[in-house]
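Exercise 7. Given the encoded structure of a 135-residue chain, write a plausible sequence.
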């Protein structure tokens, strides 16, 4: 959908598309602010209310732990992809990436250096050996 400003105006008369776009924008803006009746496609009113269940602090901690773990996994996958696919990457740059990855992982999980050494270090060493034909 093109923005309404992309259409030319004919002698100061607004087109139907511009009028509809403005009313839709106002409707969705009001819906985003919450607490008003939303006219559905059939003209029926619905009230959208956000229901949030009470979350205990333990559940919040578990959710934060899952987020950090997922971020670590994505970071490791990206670093491994860069090392394996970037043809212009030097050994020194790859080693720097690995060192920065370890630093970032330990910043997220300070007491998990042993887990990093067991899980990620062998993968990265194997990848570096394959990529740069190291012994």
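Solution.
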């Amino acid at each position: 959908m093109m923005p309404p400003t992309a259409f030319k105006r004919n002698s100061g008369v607004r087109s139907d598309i511009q009028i509809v776009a403005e009313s839709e924008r106002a409707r969705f803006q009001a819906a985003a602010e919450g607490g008003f009746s939303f006219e559905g496609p059939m003209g029926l009113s619905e009230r959208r209310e956000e229901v949030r269940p009470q979350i205990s602090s333990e559940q919040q901690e578990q959710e934060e732990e899952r987020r950090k773990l997922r971020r670590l996994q994505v970071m490791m996958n990206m670093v491994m992809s860069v090392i394996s696919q970037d043809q212009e990457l030097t050994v020194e740059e790859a080693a720097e990436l690995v060192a920065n990855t370890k630093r970032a992982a330990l910043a997220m999980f300070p007491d998990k250096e042993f887990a990093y050494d067991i899980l990620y270090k062998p993968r990265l060493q194997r990848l570096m050996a394959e990529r740069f034909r190291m012994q």
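Remark. Helices lie at 16-33, 57-85, 91-108, 113-119, 121-132. Students should compare their own answers with the one above.
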